[in-house]
């Protein structure tokens, strides 16, 4: 199995699970810099998703560069 597709699949699975637990982050308290928990959780998830997708992209770039050199 291609490592890139595995990394992307795991990334999507993590995101789906973390976004599906709506009852956990559907709260007003605690606040962070005046933002309710719901909003800063969404902002945090954007950062987490970006980091995971950059990791998957790095794996893809490593496979492309590594496959041609022998």
TrEMBL record:
Transmembrane segments: 6-25, 37-59
InterPro entries: DUF3311
Top-level division of the source organism's lineage: Archaea
Keyword terms, alphabetized: Membrane, Transmembrane, Transmembrane helix
Name recorded for this polypeptide: Uncharacterized protein
């Amino acid at each position: 199995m291609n490592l890139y597709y595995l990394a992307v699949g795991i990334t999507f699975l993590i995101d789906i699970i973390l976004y599906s637990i709506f009852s956990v982050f559907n709260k007003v308290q605690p606040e962070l810099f005046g933002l309710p928990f719901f909003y800063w959780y969404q902002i945090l998830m954007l950062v987490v998703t970006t980091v995971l997708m950059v990791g998957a992209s790095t794996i893809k770039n490593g496979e492309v560069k590594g496959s041609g050199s022998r």
